[in-house]
Every structure is written in C-alpha cells, then in structure tokens.
C-alpha cells in the first residue's frame, strides 16, 4: 500500500513551512507536524500581555530570500515588511552616533564624528555590497564538498571559483580577510570612530559566544549584510504584525499548495525500516508514513533525539556531538506606558522608528564578552533595540508601546544555571544599563518578559538555545554545516533530510535551508 504522504516535515518553524510549501507546490502530498500549539518556531508573534503583541524571539527581517517571497507569493498571503530607517548609538558622554538610510543625512552625521570615516563609509558599503553579491549565490546552492571528486561537487566548485573570480583581485583579498579576521580588526582598517566600529562589529558577534576581537567574527558581519528588502541590500525591516506574520504567510502559502499542517503534534521518533526513514511516530504513539521525512529540528535533536545514535555511523555521531551550540543571546520584551526619552536625543523623533544599539565602543562589547567567557552574564550587555509599535501601532494599545531588546551575553551554561532569580537579575542588568541612556525607562515599564537561552531551548526546542541552531562560526559553515560530507540536506539515513537552520546557510529568518532542502528532496525523487 503506498504511503499516504510523499513527505513528512517534522517541525513547523519558518524553514519547515518553506520546505512544505515548495514540496506541495511541486505536487507532493505533505504534512507538517509541529509540537507546539502554533507554527513559526523562533519566528512567531504572541500577545503576552493583554493588548501588547511581541515578536517574542526573532524581531527583524532582512535575510528572507527574495526568491522565496516571489515563488510563494508571500505578499498575497499577508507579508508586509516595513523598513527600519536608522540606527542610533547613544554614547556615554551624552552624545550619539546615528546612521540614517538617507545618504546625505548619514554623511553629515558621520562627518560630525570624523571626516575620514564619512569619506570611507561609501567605499566600505560598496566593498561589502560587492562581497555580499559574490557570496550570495552560495546561499541557494548545495555546498560542494572540496574533498570529493563526484561530478556534482566538481561542478559546484567550478561555479564557486567563478563567483570568486568575478570579484577581482582586490575584493577577493578583502573577502579572505573577512573570512579570517575579527570584526573589530577588520573595521579598524576602515574607520576610527569607536561607536561606528562597535556598532558595526556587533553584527559579527550575534548568536556566537565570541567577542568582537575573536577571529572569524568578520564573516558573521557579512552574513548580516546579505539581506535585502525590495531589492535594497543590507536593509532591515519589520514585518507588520511581528515575525509571526512571516511564518503565517508561509503557512498560508503552503496550505494554498495543498500542504496539511498539524500543531500539537510532537514527534517522538523517525520511523525506520531497513535503515530507511519511512515516517514518523508521534509522542502519543500515532504512526504516519511517507516516502521521505525532513526534519526542521536542530541537528542534535534530529539525530540524537529523533533517530538515535545507534542507527548512525560513528564518525557522523562524533561530528554532530562536536557541533557547537553555546546559546548566548537573550530577549527582554517590555510593555511601555510611554516612549523612552533618550538624554542624547530627547523626544519622540525619527530615531525611535529605527534600531537603537547599545554598543558605545569595541571595549564595551569585549568587556561584555569577558564576563560570558567565565560563565557569567554581562552586567552591561550589548543590546539591539526596536520599538515595533512606532512602526506598526497595532502592536500596542493606543498611546502605549512595545519594546524589543535583543541582548548579549547570556550564556546558556551560566554559572549556577538559569534560575528564575538569575533570569530576573539579567533582566535588571538590561533595564539598568538602558536606563542610563533613557532615564524615564523604569517608570515607563508596565510589564516585562525576560527570555534566556534556557527559555529558548524549552519553548522553541533549540538545543542550548542557540538562535541559529548552532553557532555561525567558520568551522561549521558551508560544506561543514552541520558536519563534513553531510552538508547537502541528506543524512546517513536514506529518505531522511534536514531543513532547519543547522544546515547550510544557517540561521536567521531566511528560509534558504527550507527551500534548498525541498529542492534536494525533489531531486532525490521524494
Ligand atoms: C531570541 C532570538 C532572536 C532572533 N532574532 C532574529 C532576528 O531579529 N532576525 C533574524 O533574521 N533571525 C533572528 N533569530 C534567528 C531566527 O529566528 C532563527 O534562526 C530561525 O527562526 C530558525 O528557524 P528554523 O525554521 O530553522 O527553526 P525553528 O524556528 O527553531 O523551528 C523549529 C521547529 O521545530 C519544532 N520541533 C522541534 N522538535 C520537534 C518535534 N520533535 N516534533 C515536532 N516539532 C518539533 C519546534 O517546535 C519549532 O517550531 C533570532 C532567534 C532567537 C531565538
């Protein structure tokens, strides 16, 4: 008897939904099994306090691949991305550094700090743009294995060589530097304004237990440069309704193509028959059968939780065991009775419609990291803040606001563990630090939610709460993600694939792993 489904997708995170949508679009019978009561994984919105809606985890969009938006016609399914127009970095001396989307305004502001940096800025932007363009095609490709002589790998390597050759010598050398340097050292070569170097280098430390002076962080900076919105490179935006509306739009597209989506359907294990994945067994014992299975869970959960190491080759098991998670990012979500009033730029100006970065200097970030190195959370953390209700007023009751604070470092294995008291102590460190720049903040807070890596693990199900399903560090990128020889969405189990952020090209609300995995499955005959 044929299996009732062609494919089972384990997990309804945005990548699982993208995979389901592409498979269903190709005419396959697909079911998504999501353990939680809602889809979206780390890309979800929730009304945590009456009237106040939060993007509880991920909060801004940029990396979502344009081809996915097009192929799935996501605007028709409700996706609406509103641009974030600035980044404000308040400084300890009462001044600030602002970066504006408007070119002339930005140049004037930079020149206020350094004429040299104002000059270098355009050139830097161009260099990053060119490198992003060269690296961007890699996001959509199955990483070729440089150690393989298989025709497909050799063809992939030749294509790769073509992308790099197209960069020209200077940009290629710069790309090599980006791949090997720390973000602080790399930015030192371009700029002198401390706050500018710090704010830019902060993109390099997001999601990693590394500091801005750790080698390899410059590449993560490029990863964050690869986003685009409506063809504008490097633009960050805010999804109307929060990041849950990104997942809702993808789910709606998947359903439109005929995919079935079941929530509150936790999978206990992948069903194996003669070494092949033939379905999934739910925690309640129900069995579902399919021609192929794809897991949106992270590599550790997939292989050790859903498959079992006894079914896997020993070297593969070792590789997955070594794959580093080390969650370090936290969120503090605030419901506010009034807007924060920044001493450096008082009032409700346009700066409150953009991002606010607490990154006054590279030393500040490195000190925040120092504490995490020894198992403590940062007493004065790095923060990336947005006030979504300034862009989408429906997120909060009239006259009130929601504030989303992404904060580092809050190491998963903090000394003594994440007790309730320690979680709140971290929340206090975040609020106290921010209140130094916006003194009315404490008075403005109506409600507060603190989300640590332990909470991310518990709620979203990501091992060690790493926001990217495993650090985006060079030793676990591209043909090494999650392990060498198995970075092609396939796994050592026939018929079992991976489509989560633990596979190439990694985390972020990007959809690329989901799309690439679905295309690999279709090529594999699922
Ligand atoms: C705090 C935080 C802030 C972030 N900020 C941003 C940001 O602003 N912008 C950005 O681009 N990215 C951000 N990210 C990263 C981004 O959100 C993630 O990389 C991405 O959402 C992961 O998507 P995914 O589909 O691969 O996995 P997930 O979202 O983790 O989805 C996996 C799904 O699988 C389900 N699942 C797991 N096991 C089972 C099982 N046994 N049975 C059934 N279902 C199962 C889970 O419940 C979950 O729904 C952030 C992440 C976090 C946590």
Description:
There is one protein chain. This protein has 526 residues and is an alpha/beta fold. It has helices at residues 14-25, 66-71, 103-113, 115-135, 151-165, 168-180, 183-188, 194-202, 217-225, 244-256, 299-307, 314-322, 362-373, 388-391, 420-435, 441-444, 453-459, 512-523; strands at 5-10, 30-33, 45-49, 52-55, 81-83, 86-90, 96-100, 228-229, 232-233, 237-239, 260-262, 267-273, 276-282, 287-295, 329-336, 355-358, 382-386, 401-408, 445-451, 496-498. Strands 1, 2, 11, 12, 13, 14 and 20 form a 7-stranded mixed sheet that branches. A 7-stranded mixed sheet has the order 7-6-16-17-18-15-19, with helices on both faces. Strands 3-4 form a two-stranded antiparallel sheet. A hairpin with a 2-residue loop joins strand 3 and strand 4 (52-55). Bound molecules: flavin-adenine dinucleotide. The site of flavin-adenine dinucleotide (FAD) has 39 residues, from helix 1 and strand 15.
Give the gist of this structure.
With 526 residues, this protein is an alpha/beta fold. The protein has helices at 14-25, 66-71, 103-113, 115-135, 151-165, 168-180, 183-188, 194-202, 217-225, 244-256, 299-307, 314-322, 362-373, 388-391, 420-435, 441-444, 453-459, 512-523; strands spanning 5-10, 30-33, 45-49, 52-55, 81-83, 86-90, 96-100, 228-229, 232-233, 237-239, 260-262, 267-273, 276-282, 287-295, 329-336, 355-358, 382-386, 401-408, 445-451, 496-498.
């Amino acid at each position: 008897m044929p299996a009732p489904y062609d494919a089972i997708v384990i997990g309804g995170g945005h990548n699982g939904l993208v995979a389901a949508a592409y498979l269903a679009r190709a005419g396959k019978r697909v079911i998504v099994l999501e353990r939680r009561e809602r889809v979206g994984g780390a890309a979800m919105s929730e009304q945590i306090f009456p009237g106040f809606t939060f993007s509880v985890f991920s909060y801004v969009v940029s990396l979502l691949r344009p081809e996915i938006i097009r192929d799935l016609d996501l605007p028709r399914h409700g996706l609406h991305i509103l641009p974030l127009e600035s980044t404000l970095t308040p400084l300890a001396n009462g001044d600030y550094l602002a970066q504006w989307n408007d070119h002339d305004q930005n140049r004037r502001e930079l020149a206020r700090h350094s004429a040299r940096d104002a000059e270098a800025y355009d050139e830097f932007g161009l260099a990053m743009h060119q490198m992003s363009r060269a690296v961007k095609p890699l996001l959509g490709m199955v990483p070729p294995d440089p150690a393989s002589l298989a025709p497909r790998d050799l063809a992939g390597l030749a294509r790769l060589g073509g992308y790099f050759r197209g960069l020209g010598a200077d940009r290629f050398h710069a790309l090599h530097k980006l791949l090997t340097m720390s973000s602080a050292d790399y930015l030192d070569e371009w700029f002198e304004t401390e706050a500018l170097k710090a704010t830019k280098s902060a993109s390099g430390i997001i999601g990693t237990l590394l500091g801005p002076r750790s080698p390899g962080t410059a590449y993560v900076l490029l990863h964050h440069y690869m986003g685009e919105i409506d063809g504008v490179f490097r633009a960050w935006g805010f999804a109307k309704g929060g990041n849950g509306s990104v997942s809702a739009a993808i789910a709606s597209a998947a359903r439109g193509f005929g995919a079935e989506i079941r929530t509150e359907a936790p999978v206990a294990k992948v069903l194996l028959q003669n070494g092949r994945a033939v379905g999934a067994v739910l925690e309640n014992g129900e069995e579902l059968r399919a021609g192929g299975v794809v897991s949106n869970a992270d590599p550790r959960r997939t292989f050790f939780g859903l498959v079992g190491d006894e079914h896997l080759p020993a070297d593969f098991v070792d590789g997955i065991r070594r794959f580093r998670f080390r969650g370090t990012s936290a969120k503090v979500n605030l419901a506010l009775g009034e807007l924060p009033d920044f001493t450096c730029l008082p009032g409700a100006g346009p700066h409150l419609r953009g991002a606010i970065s607490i990154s006054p200097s590279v030393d500040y970030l490195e000190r925040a990291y120092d504490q995490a190195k020894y198992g403590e959370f940062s007493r004065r953390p790095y923060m990336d803040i947005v006030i979504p209700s300034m862009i989408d007023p429906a997120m909060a009751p009239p006259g009130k606001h929601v504030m989303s604070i992404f904060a580092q470092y809050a190491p998963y294995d903090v000394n003594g563990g994440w007790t309730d008291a320690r979680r709140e102590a971290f929340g206090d460190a975040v609020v106290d630090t921010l209140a130094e720049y916006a003194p009315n903040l404490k008075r403005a807070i109506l409600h507060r939610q603190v989300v640590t890596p332990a909470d991310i693990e518990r709620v979203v199900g990501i091992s060690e709460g790493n926001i990217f399903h495993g650090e985006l560090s060079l030793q676990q990128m591209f043909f090494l993600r999650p392990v060498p020889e198995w970075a092609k969405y396939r796994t050592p189990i026939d018929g079992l694939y991976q489509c989560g952020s633990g596979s190439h090209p990694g985390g972020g609300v990007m959809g690329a792993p989901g799309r690439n995995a679905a295309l690999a499955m279709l090529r594999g005959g699922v």
